[in-house]
Amino acid sequence: MKPTLVILAAGMASRYGSQKQTQSFGPSGETIMEYSIYDAIRAGFKKVVFIIREDFSEAFKALIEPKLADKIEIDYVFQAIDSFVPADKMPADRVKPWGTAHALLCCKEKVKEPFAVINADDFYGSDAFEKASKFLQESCNNNTWAVIAYWLRNTLSENGSVSRGVIDVADGEMAGINERTKVSGTPDNMVYEDEAGVSQLPHDTVVSMNMFCFANSFITLSEDMFTTFLESAQTNPKAEFFIPLVVDGFLKKGLGVTKVVPTDAKWFGVTYKEDAPGVQKSINDLVQQGMYPNNLWA
Fold first, then answer.
1. Which residue in 6, 122, 169, 174 could disulfide with 117, CB within 3.0 to 4.6 Å?
2. Rounded to whole angstroms, how far apart are CA atoms 144 and 150?
3. In this model, does residue 13 exceed pLDDT 60?
4. Which of 177, 192, 158 is nearest to 268 (CA)?
5. CA dihedral sign, ordered 224, 227, 232, 236
6. Pick the CATH number of 4-148+208-288 from 3.30.70.20, 3.40.30.10, 3.40.50.720, 3.90.550.10
7. Concatenated DSSP letters for 132-157?
8. Would you kindly state where each structural domain of the chain is located, as residue ranges?
9. At CA 110, angle to CA 105 and CA 113, rounded to 5?
């Protein structure tokens, strides 16, 4: 069965200041996610599902559909603040949806096959999609998921420190994931800073950039866990139901394993406005190297 690509594109982009999901970065006006879709098509994905907010769905479709017509099957899921939330469990002061795992839960009626999930505003590289497609078609099942793991040295920013989910690996499987903030340095000297001070990170550290491969069991488990999550979220209007929370529950409940599939791809993305010129240059460099055509969809 050919896999599906799910793209998280419903974020509020509060730090960035605009809809970065639809901002042009490529030489012919391509968004970052179009490069992901292009790589996914080449890797054998059959369908792309966009998780978006309904209030900008028409503008989003007008941008995407003319480019992807006849290239890949397209579908949409709307992530709303009240999706899967009983009326009596909705905090009065909640102002935005509930995070990335909640977004995937909203795909319950649209995604039944093995799928990969990515962020709309991150560039993942072709090798990552080839690895994901192979895993989804050959190894993924309800008890076996995967994270596409990036070498930390390939995800550093030249503009300052970053936060990364550092993966604990045991025999090729995820044993846990630890959020490290203020990660900085060079590929040969990587450190992170916390309340205990500055600590060195090993050269072979791998991190999650929120690219996972799941079977339908992820959505089933998310629905079960979201019910419990809502109980604890009543007193915290900013609580987030994230994908790693469900993966952690999957592991701790002994429901299966999450394979760590490393990629040599170099990641880049946009968090702040200042990141945009660097992303544009990185894409233009790849085009000049012949990795991508000057116009993806010509």
1. 6
2. 19
3. no
4. 158
5. positive
6. 3.90.550.10
7. HHHHHHHT-BTTEEEEEEEEGGGS--
8. 4-148+208-288
9. 90
- Long-range contact pairs involving 107-110 (C-beta distance under 8 Å, separation at least 24): 107/6, 107/49, 107/51, 107/77, 107/219, 108/219, 108/223, 110/49, 110/75, 110/77
* DSSP symbols for 31-79: -HHHHHHHHHHHHT--EEEEEE-GGGHHHHHHHHHHHHTTTSEEEEEE-
Instruction: Specify the pLDDT at position 19.
Output: 60
Question: What integer pLDDT is reported at residue 16 of this predicted model?
Answer: 34
Dist. CA 20–CA 271, nearest whole Å: 9
Query: Predicted confidence band at 286 (pLDDT cuts at 50, 70, 90)?
Result: very high
Instruction: Round to whole Å and give the CA distance between 203 and 188.
Output: 7
The tokens describing 44, both together, are: 């054998």
User: Is a pLDDT exceeding 80 seen at residue 21?
Assistant: no
Residue with tokens 């996914």: 40
What's the rounded Cα separation, in Å, for the pair 292 and 128?
A: 15
Going by C-alpha positions, the residue among 206, 222, 211 that lies closest to residue 150 is 206
Entry pTM: 0.93
Instruction: Identify the bridge partners of residue 185 per DSSP, sorted by sequence position.
Output: 190
| Per-residue model confidence (pLDDT) at position 11 | 66
Rounded Cα distance between 174 and 168, Å, is: 6
Q: What is the mean pLDDT of the chain?
A: 91
